[in-house]
From TrEMBL:
<dbReference type="InterPro" id="IPR056924">
    <property type="entry name" value="SH3_Tf2-1"/>
</dbReference>
<dbReference type="GO" id="GO:0015074">
    <property type="term" value="P:DNA integration"/>
</dbReference>
<dbReference type="Pfam" id="PF24626">
    <property type="entry name" value="SH3_Tf2-1"/>
</dbReference>
<dbReference type="InterPro" id="IPR000953">
    <property type="entry name" value="Chromo/chromo_shadow_dom"/>
</dbReference>
<dbReference type="InterPro" id="IPR043502">
    <property type="entry name" value="DNA/RNA_pol_sf"/>
</dbReference>
<dbReference type="InterPro" id="IPR016197">
    <property type="entry name" value="Chromo-like_dom_sf"/>
</dbReference>
<protein>
    <recommendedName>
        <fullName>Mitochondrial protein</fullName>
    </recommendedName>
</protein>
<feature type="domain" description="Chromo">
    <location>
        <begin position="194"/>
        <end position="243"/>
    </location>
</feature>
<dbReference type="InterPro" id="IPR012337">
    <property type="entry name" value="RNaseH-like_sf"/>
</dbReference>
<feature type="domain" description="Integrase catalytic">
    <location>
        <begin position="1"/>
        <end position="129"/>
    </location>
</feature>
<dbReference type="InterPro" id="IPR001584">
    <property type="entry name" value="Integrase_cat-core"/>
</dbReference>
Length: 243
C-alpha cells in the first residue's frame, strides 16, 4: 500500500473507532484492505474477502442484494444468528454486558467444526500458517522511491524479487528470531506447516456445559510473544512428544 493510501487508511480507521463502529482487535485473522476511487476523487475503503471465500464457500454463487443484506443465500444470516444466540446465552448465564463475552464467543465459535472448510478455524490455523517474514535477504538495488530488489533464496524461484517498502522490515541481527527460507518447506502459496517446540503453560477454559483443557504453545521460528493457546487434546494427539 502506498504511503498516501496508508495515511488515508489510518484516518478512516480512526474515524470508525471514534464513532464506535469498530474497535481495536488482537485477532490473528484478517483480510486485505483496498481503496476504490469514488466519482468525487475521494477513496472508499473496501475489504477484500475473495481469498477467504475461495476457502469457505465452495460450489456456491453469492446473490448480493443491499448493503444491509449483502448475501441472500442464507449463509451470512445463519452465521449472525449463531453468534447472536451465543451472546444471548452468555449474558443470561454470566450476566454483564455482551461486549465482555466477545473473547469467549470468538473462542467457542472458532473452536467448533465448520462444514464449509471441513475443520475448526483454530485447527486450520495450527496446520497451515503463513510466516510473517522470511529472511534476511541482501538488497541488490533500490527501484524508484518505494521499492527494493532483493537477492532471494534459490528455494524461491517463482517469487518476484522486487518488493514495495511497506512489505519489508529492517533486519536487526538476532539469531533467535531469524526464519530462513532454507529451514522451512515453503509451499507454492508461500505457506508452510508450523511445528510446535515447547509447552509454556496450562489452563482450563470454562464454557457453559464443559471445561476445555488448553495449553500455551511455543512454535518453532517464532518468539514467545507469538505463542498461542491450543486444545490440549489436539496437541497430545498430533504432537505427543511435547508431553
Amino acid at each position: 500500500m502506498a504511503p498516501k493510501e496508508l495515511s488515508e487508511l489510518n484516518f478512516q480507521l480512526q474515524e470508525l473507532v471514534d464513532r464506535g463502529f469498530v474497535r481495536p482487535s488482537v485477532s490473528p485473522w484478517g483480510a486485505p484492505v483496498l481503496f476504490v476511487k469514488k466519482k468525487d476523487g475521494t477513496l472508499r475503503m473496501c475489504i477484500d474477502y475473495r481469498d477467504l471465500n475461495k476457502v469457505t464457500i465452495k460450489n456456491k454463487k453469492l446473490h448480493f442484494s443491499t448493503a444491509f443484506h449483502p448475501q441472500t443465500d442464507g449463509q451470512s444470516e445463519r452465521t449472525i444468528q449463531v453468534l447472536e444466540d451465543l451472546l444471548r446465552l452468555c449474558v443470561l448465564d454470566f450476566s454483564g454486558s455482551w461486549e465482555d463475552h466477545i473473547p469467549l464467543i470468538e473462542f467457542a465459535y472458532n473452536n467448533s467444526f465448520q462444514s464449509s472448510i471441513g475443520m475448526a478455524p483454530y485447527e486450520g490455523q495450527v496446520s497451515k500458517l503463513s510466516p510473517r517474514y522470511v529472511g534476511p535477504f541482501e538488497i541488490l538495488e533500490r527501484i524508484g522511491k518505494a521499492a527494493y530488489k532483493l537477492m532471494l533464496s534459490d528455494s524461491m524461484p517463482d517469487v518476484h524479487n522486487v518488493f514495495h517498502v511497506s512489505t519489508l522490515r529492517k533486519w536487526v541481527s538476532d539469531s533467535g528470531k531469524k526464519v530462513s527460507a532454507d529451514e522451512v518447506e515453503i509451499q507454492e502459496n508461500l505457506t508452510y506447516k508450523e511445528e510446535p517446540e515447547l509447552i509454556l503453560a496450562y489452563d482450563v477454559r470454562k464454557l457453559r456445559s464443559k471445561q476445555i483443557p488448553m495449553v500455551k504453545v511455543q512454535w518453532k521460528h517464532r518468539t514467545a510473544r507469538e505463542a498461542t493457546w491450543e486444545k490440549e487434546s489436539d496437541m497430545r494427539r498430533l504432537y505427543p512428544y511435547l508431553f
